[in-house]
Amino acid sequence: MISQYAQIVPKGDVLLIQRLAEELQGRSFLHINSTKAGGGVAEILQRMVPFLKELGIDARWEALEGDQRFFDITKKIHNTLQGHPEQFHQSMWEHHYEINRKNAARLPLDADAVLIHDPQPAALVEFRKEGKWIWRCHIDVSNPVKDVWDYLKRYCEKYDSAVFSVAKFVKSLGIDEFIIPPSIDPLSEKNMELPEEEIHATLNKFHIPADRPMLLQISRFDRFKDPTGVIKAYRIVKKYNDCTLVLAGSPATDDPEGETVLREVKEYAAEDPAIFILLLPPFSDRDVNALQRAATVVLQKSTKEGFGLTVSEAMWKGRPVIGGAVGGIPLQIVHGVNGFLVHSVEGAAFRIRQFLNNPDMAQRMGERAKEYVRNNFLITRQIRDYLSIWYAMESKGKNIFEL
Ligand code: UDP
């Protein structure tokens, strides 16, 4: 498996992974998150866990089981940590803890390293066994609602270390904190090369005309992704440039707000025949791939974003990308070099028109975008980083010259 990657990714990453995997052979590495389907974390784990196994590491992935109330609460935790106020009561934390307690009884938590993704399973640390426990924060916690962060922090502080995607999210937790941006897999169905015929067939399947430029945003239907802002920008562009707009998303089992937001977006689109709102089933990876490759301009107009996998996915396909200047996106897009960062609907419309009217510039930026992802945001780099921190945690306290 790793030999296939060696043709594509930076060579140094492959060498380091092989060396670290030798050190960690046969050791167990457990990942726990809150869904097997939908959203960026599941997207990464689906590919990373088999890769780790292939390296001789005993990797496992478990997902929390919870009731509707639990996921309503964890969505509120998510919203508040990303700075959006919500009503929050002590009883909600109690239910959060209770579901974590039930999962702790159900899940085998024994492992040499345990990586807990995001706030939903954070309380599992109360039931920790042997091994190193790491809390991995994927969300934009640059400006959280203080009370909610303070409560969650009680759990975070019980881990051995924490990992954030971007330096500006790091908190003073009193434990080791690392910065590891997420990544995409260039060989997955989501990102592999596709034949032109398949791309055309996908457009036909969704009745999207190929005779006009196409704007695209792929996202869960979540207000932080600003789908209505994308429609507003498209409407400004449409006064000058003919184009279609595709908003595609699929549900995530841990996101109960998706349906409501989808309804809002449909209403807002008001039956414009050039707006295509696609509700894709989970695991529509080839369709997402084809849509990203067919797009003239890709948007990720988020107002909060831990790190936009969709941004890296489109950049890897050489697309010109416009992203909201928030959270992890400025780490991915170097403004004016490999894409554009925007702060408003008007800014997004302006940059869309710039790309539509300058296809050569769009192509040049897209080419740079692909190389930027190759050097920074492919799965091998993230595996290298995870194995490095695990190894560093194991070696902590030892005389460095005896390692
Ligand atoms: N995604 C998908 N189908 C959809 C919408 C999203 O497969 O209809 C994928 C998308 O390609 C990306 C992930 O879900 O890999 C979303 O990750 P991102 O970091 O962009 O956002 P998150 O959902 O984690 O906030």
Summarize the structure.
With 403 residues, this protein is α/β, with parallel strands linked by helices. The protein contains 15 helices and 12 strands. It folds into 2 domains: 207 residues, Rossmann fold (3-Layer(aba) Sandwich); 181 residues, Rossmann fold.
Shape: globular
Looking at CATH, the homologous superfamily of the largest domain is: Glycogen Phosphorylase B
Terminal CA distance reads 29 Å
Listing every helix as H and every strand as E from the N terminus to the C terminus, the arrangement reads HHEHEHHEEHEEHEHEHEHEHEHEHHH
> What is the CA-atom radius of gyration, in angstroms?
21 Å
Overall pLDDT level: 96
Poorly predicted ranges? none
Number-wise, the strands total 12
Corresponding CATH architecture of the largest domain: 3-Layer(aba) Sandwich
What fraction of residues sit in β-strands? 5-15%
Strand order of the largest sheet: 2-1-3-4-5-6
Listed once per kind, the bound small molecules are: uridine-5'-diphosphate
Structural class: alpha/beta
In the CATH hierarchy, what is the class of the largest domain?
A: Alpha Beta
Number of helices: 15
